[in-house]
């Protein structure tokens, strides 16, 4: 994957509207500090598959080509890209990152569900008009297919019946999707993830077993289960350095790893 040629990807015709929404949703945000936070969080929480395998049912389908593609690190790439500006058009993200479109949309949808990024859908009537003008030019130059020519000339009766729907779609214009980092919600999401990590580390510790050597040569030398890798013999038993077999201590576990 290549993600060179970074830059602001939102179009001039939507810049004022998008910027106003971005500013209203991210008031009192220190951009430089929050961008560093996003890049660090991306490497901490989203460096694996994006979306995770357990949240992508299509990955279990052996016939799916998507299941064979590696998405490890895609979340980091996407968040790094989005952190370099405000709003980015989806088509520009796809072009700059050179990622499979389906994979990119899955990653964007997952990050949106994580409340790290936000989306904005905008109807672009001028883009629709430009596309219609290109179709007319192609028709006039004889470079369109028969189906396209039929659509421009009115086509069949079935096409005539659907003309109202097409006109309505033309009035609405093309739907253009933009994405941006949602710094306010991302900050809360990252704090929650860190809190859960801290709670997990501060939770109950696993019991550490103690083992003792009964040989009088060692004077009842003791070991902990943390030393098991060094004490495991070829017979599958734990042995003291003197060669005698070790037995689990009757006193049970201990909080600290002991060793004689």
From TrEMBL:
* Listed GO CC annotations: transcription factor TFIIE complex
Family annotation (InterPro entries)? TFE, TFIIE_asu
Q: Which GO terms describe its biological process?
A: transcription initiation at RNA polymerase II promoter
Give start-end of the signal peptide: none
Domain named Transcription initiation factor IIE subunit alpha N-terminal: which ranges? 73-260
- This chain belongs to the protein called Transcription initiation factor IIE subunit alpha N-terminal domain-containing protein
The major lineage groups are:
Eukaryota, Viridiplantae, Chlorophyta, core chlorophytes, Chlorophyceae
